[in-house]
Design a protein that fits this description.
mainly alpha; 48% helix; 138 residues
């Protein structure tokens, strides 16, 4: 749905202030929803401004500037922390990819997985397959 122009918002509120009808009648006259008229009245009452408020839309960030500073401090002290360890140290309740994206945005690196001694019994890497297919051979 497109945002209402500031001019239309002003005309709606001016019409309401002049008593040219009820909120429902004004909504019908300007071809907007009753909820939009209510929203404009409430926004003007609370903020004194009727401009669109796009910056307040959407999901709010869980990892804010204070967390970013704490991440930087933790990684200075222990640069080999995994994402899970970092999340636990910060006390965050977000996904590991969310922390990953913040670290990438900050230009920081992290340890990819938990350290463990290499296995003496199992192969550490898979054998490479032969290139090409069997039908092409020969």
């Amino acid at each position: 749905m497109a945002t209402l122009s500031l001019d239309l918002r002003e005309r709606i509120l001016s019409s309401y202030d002049k008593g040219e009808g009820s909120r429902d009648e004004i909504a019908h006259r300007f071809q907007v929803s009753l909820g939009m008229v209510k929203k404009l009245l409430q926004q003007r009452r609370h903020t004194g401004c009727i401009k669109p408020r796009h910056h307040l839309a959407g999901r709010k960030k869980l990892i804010v500037a204070a967390h970013r500073m704490a991440i930087r401090q933790h990684l200075k002290g222990k640069p080999d922390m995994t994402l899970a360890e970092l999340r636990d140290a910060l006390g965050l309740e977000c996904t590991l990819p969310a922390i990953h994206y913040v670290l990438v945005d900050m230009g920081l690196t992290y340890k990819k997985r938990r350290s463990a001694l290499p296995s003496k019994n199992a192969k550490t890497s898979a054998k490479r397959a032969a290139s090409g297919s069997a039908s092409k051979a020969g």
